[in-house]
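Blackboard transcription, Thursday session:
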Amino acid sequence: MSIPREFYTLATICIMLSGISLGAKLLEPTPRLSEGRNYPPAPPADTDNDLVIIKGNKAPALGQITNLKGKILNQDGSPNKNVVVEIWQSDANGFFVNDEKRDDKTVKFDRNFQGYGRCDVNELGEYTFRTIKPVPSAGRAAPHIFIRVKQGNLELVTTQLFVRGYEGNKNDEVFKGIKDVLNRELVQADFKVPTDPKAEISSQFDIVIGGRVLDASRIVPQESPEP
Amino acid sequence: MKPRSRLMIPGGLAAGLCVLVSLPFVVGLDGDIVSRLLSFDRNRDGALTRNEMSDSRLLPIFERYDSNKDASLTREEIIAGAEADSPGSTTAAPAAPQQPATFGGEGKPMIARPTGIGGGGAPSPLTKANSPSVAFPDGLTRVGQVVPDDIKESLELSDKQKKQIDDLEKDIASRLDRILNAKQAQLLKDRINQQTNGSKTKIESPDLPSQTNSPVDGDK
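(Written on the board underneath:)
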């Protein structure tokens, strides 16, 4: 019996569909996590990707200077271009830039830490920040950096970056709330301390976009405590 | 044969092929950890090799779960690894090392005492509560053992449960072997043998990290 021509047509379509399916499973999406309550209600005066030096200041921020870099990718491994990466985190003393006690002179804010920064990715989907190694902040046992990826007004993902292997992670309510072992893996990164004490820490954190996106223009700061 | 029915046979074959090829990936999108990891198994031979793991962010978990270090993960290795990684596990995940459990009123750590047994650090029948120093739990006779043999007997375990505990202990022993250097591993074996052979010498606490709280938790 000769194989009808239609078989080849349908088989070709199926192989193409299977190829899409195969391509879609190269990378696991980065889990969405709470944005907390410390997203700045208004951007600070300096919003560049160097959080260690605020424009006009001479003194750098306190803390262990860290070069955080990574890629924004789609699940098929392709770079996600034309997106903006935002990060915000506490200073070396555990205070966020929007803390209500910021005007209290008795509280030890690091006023040389920018606390928030943005970075446009390049053609390869790469971003980079110069910041400090995160420390535990009020109510949180785990050091963490909040990260949001936006495309225009679309929020592609908001997540939190944790220090891999930090003892306090398992006492942190947000980290503990990630029940899935794979998802826990996807929100941790190494913070490699160089042997040269003068050199800066480096960390690589790739973010994979998957699932639904939100309209970022609707995002309002949360009133309730995190998580 | 009519043209329409001629199309149905190859169409059905092709659709079946399509489903067969896509199914593992569709299932893996939002399934349990086994199916999610095995969805990276491109040749679908039931084992995930290091080369097939296309998501480099998951390589740390791959390395942890690959207990026999053959650069390939089987379903059994994934299940064992996931059990060890899960909260309340009796083994520690290297990526986020568990602190030693504390027992008794002194808060002293017990060596070789896995967490998760005995209900959240309450004094255990396996331990010497209020001991001023650290002692190896009574009844444990080999590295990786989590339930003493005499207690196993009293629990009237089923064959399946016995096998599961045996597998767990083998896994712990294997992991400890990777964590400790040769000198430490030998020291641990010596201490266990010492106790097993009748000596009840207390073991002084090694330099284990103490339980610390976040310096800023709820303090602002």
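Lecturer's comment: The helical segments of chain A are 5-23, 173-177, 181-186.
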